[in-house]
Design goal:
alpha/beta; six-stranded mixed sheet; Leucine Aminopeptidase, subunit E, domain 1; 6 strands; 2 domains; 13 helices
Length: 338
């Protein structure tokens, strides 16, 4: 997945490079900074001793030494947040740009960021996340790289965000427990169990969306095998919209290699999150989205939190996949892409 928001440990996630948020003196004094210095060991301290100072917004690359989950460490100094009027946002964006630039120069395929400057440097977490997401997204428009953004708590998402409040209201309205309808005024007969018609809709958990085989969950419809495969349907929809492949897979947060595999394999059956991501990438409406999903054995139901968030976004023409992924992440749902 080109950009993945994740709850993970910067010292455990596997990537070609991890980013160390440090200070101007490369002192190893912050929480993440100190842990990286401890694990990397004396070799890192010796290499860093050749640098006198690291200006805010700049970055340098070193070997990983004792850190086994990466090849390199990229050190960057974020801004101390004062009041937002001292170029803090510009400096923070520069941190991400400079780290990505170094990763590109080294021809790395993956990089993992913590949320820079959001700890001891007191940068508001909501703003920090937005700057990180926007800067990384701009980079990925033209570049191929897997980027992990590690977020540890929901406070990182702006609690005053109007979109999130609207989505929460939408979920609350649609996921309320439904009262059981009585069979008759006097209730069910003694020693009889009320008959309940089984639902054809299956609600997937996050784990099931990742691990289970595709299914045909079609309300009020018979299960069927579609006339065209998922890949054929995808190609047709792209052609009908006169879109170019890069426009689709970049908007869908899918890398080029995987996208080409999807297009060229008529038997390909995607995960639900991948199919939904491609629908978002093509800016499909609800009916068109379900048409595409049906080719892979899925449908957007009204009983799943994941499905309801996707429905809300499509119905309100929210097609920025990184905004959608932030909403999914806040609700502990699997994010889109592959």
């Amino acid at each position: 997945m080109p950009l993945q928001i994740s709850r993970n440990d910067i010292q455990k996630i596997k990537a070609d490079a991890i980013v160390d948020p440090t200070d101007v003196f490369l002192s190893g004094s912050g929480s993440i900074d100190a842990r990286i210095h401890e694990l990397a060991g004396e070799g890192l301290e010796e290499e860093l001793s050749s640098y006198e100072r690291l200006e805010p917004g700049k970055a340098i690359l070193t070997k990983s030494y004792g850190l086994k989950n990466c090849k390199y460490i990229i050190h960057t100094c974020g801004p101390h947040y004062i009041d937002g009027d001292h170029e803090e946002e510009k400096i923070l964006a520069s941190c991400y740009k400079e780290c990505l630039k170094l990763a590109k120069e080294k021809e790395l395929s993956s990089i993992a960021f913590p949320l820079i400057a959001s700890g001891t440097f007191a940068f508001p977490k909501g703003k920090a996340l937005r700057i990180a997401s926007d800067t990384i997204t701009d980079f990925l428009i033209d570049e191929e790289m897997d980027v992990f953004l590690l977020v540890y708590d929901k406070e990182s998402f702006d609690s005053a965000n109007r979109l999130y409040a609207d989505v929460k209201d939408y979920l609350d309205q649609n996921l309320k427990p439904r009262k059981r309808k009585e069979i008759s005024e006097t209730g069910p007969r003694p020693n009889k169990v009320p008959y309940s018609k089984p639902s054809l809709l299956k609600e997937e958990t996050t784990e099931e969306m990742e691990l289970s085989a595709p299914y045909f969950a079609m309300a009020e419809k018979e299960r069927f095998e579609p006339d065209e495969s998922f890949s054929q349907c995808l190609i047709r929809m792209i052609d009908e919209r006169h879109m170019k492949d890069p426009d689709v897979y970049k908007r869908a947060n899918i890398d080029r290699k995987h996208f080409n595999h999807i297009k060229n394999n008529a038997a390909y059956k995607p995960k639900k999150v991948t199919a939904v991501a491609l629908a978002i990438g093509m800016r499909l409406n609800i009916e068109e989205t379900n048409t595409l999903l049906e080719r892979a054995g899925f449908v957007l139901s009204r009983s799943s939190k994941f499905d309801l968030i996707i429905r809300y976004c499509i119905e309100h023409q929210i097609y920025n996949i990184f905004d959608i992924n932030e909403l999914l992440f806040r609700e502990d749902q699997q994010t889109l892409g592959c």
